[in-house]
Amino acid sequence: MLLAMATLAAPARFAFAQPQVRMVSLGVLTPDPREPDTATWRTFASELARLGWTEGRNLRVERRFVDMGRLDVLDRMARDLVEARVDVIYAAGGSATALAAKKATATVPIVFYSSADPVGMGLVSSLAHPGTNLTGSSIQSLDLLTKQFQLLRRVSRKLTSIAYINSADRRDSALSTASVAAASAAARALGVRIQFVYASSIDEVEPQLQRLVQSGVDGTVISGSASFSDAVLEKIAALLVAYRLPSLGGATEGFLLDYGVSEDALARVAARYVDKILRGAKPADLPVDLGSVFGFVLNLATAKALGLDIPPDILIQATDVIR
Predict the structure, then answer these.
(1) Among 110, 112, 121, 221, which residue's Cα sits nearest to residue 176?
(2) What tens digit of pLDDT does each residue of 179-197 get?
(3) Of the candidates 108, 102, 34, which has an alpha carbon nearest to the alpha carbon of residue 68?
(4) Which alpha helices (DSSP H) does the chain contain, by range?
(5) Are residues 165 and 226 in contact, defined by beta-carbon separation less than 8 angstroms?
(6) Domains of the chain and CATH, by start
(7) Is 23 exposed, middle or buried (0-12, 13-18, 19+ CB in 10 A)?
């Protein structure tokens, strides 16, 4: 009887035993210390969770924040993630973080959020067959830049000469070279003159803009590869309003309009690629995604400050409006 009771009771000792959960490690290299609280990160994390990966349950996240004004520490932060023995690196800051991650390792898989020209910058061998330890999304094509310039012309009602602003620390980089080449080609296609401005601070931007306005510049573009902080971008946007210059850049920072691949779409693609890699896929075999979901943001407060009336057919195309 005692033996029978002991036999029946024995399984109870193991009733609460749980199968061991496989924990994986994701390294995140980002220029934004607010990353965990941004809408883009929430979209990325939500998509990962939908695919079965939740931070704290089966996913450990190692974050390294790099102020884009301090690119001197970017390479060191990338190496730090490699030394932390992460399973995948998510280069959340675009081409700059992708290049730093690539320099740090040729073996750890890397997913980049976006890149202007992943082939030209040497991140991948080709879009269809990356052939390296990197993959991700490509957003800056000639067609996209041409569309951006066309919208700027349509909204401003004229566009004969563009000032294209980039950060001075990128002037000789592969990132800047690709950006300048694409912008020059897009301007030629529209018959628009383009002049390039390189600066590291608002104090360097202003005298160059003053000279360019006197020479006939009537539109401005902030390069997608520029490494200015949000605070500097806001100052540049305010300066452009003071000079009565319609602008293409981050509408949330005060530029007139922003047109590009949807940030949410890019975040979801990145999460799907991280999932595939964690399940055994190789980045070399995952084609670079060419964004097909676009967002068009208009800043009506900036338009009002510039004295512009946005045509109704343009306004209706906006996916978001800042008033």
Answers:
(1) 121
(2) 788 899 999 999 999 999 9
(3) 34
(4) 2-9, 39-50, 74-83, 95-104, 142-156, 174-190, 202-214, 230-242, 263-278, 300-306, 312-315
(5) yes
(6) 24-140+262-293 (3.40.50.2300), 142-260+295-322 (3.40.50.2300)
(7) exposed
Bridge-based pairing state of the strands 161-167 and 134-138? unpaired
Return the bridge partners of 110, or none: 89, 134
Q: How confident is the model at residue 9 (pLDDT cuts 50, 70, 90)?
A: very low
Task: Tell me if the pTM is above 0.85.
Answer: no
Q: What is the DSSP letter of 226?
A: -
Displacement of CA 136 from its chain's centroid (Å): 11
**Bridge partners of residue 60, in order along the sequence:** 25
The per-residue pLDDT for range 21-67, each reduced to its tens digit, is 689 999 999 877 777 778 899 999 999 999 999 999 999 999 998 76
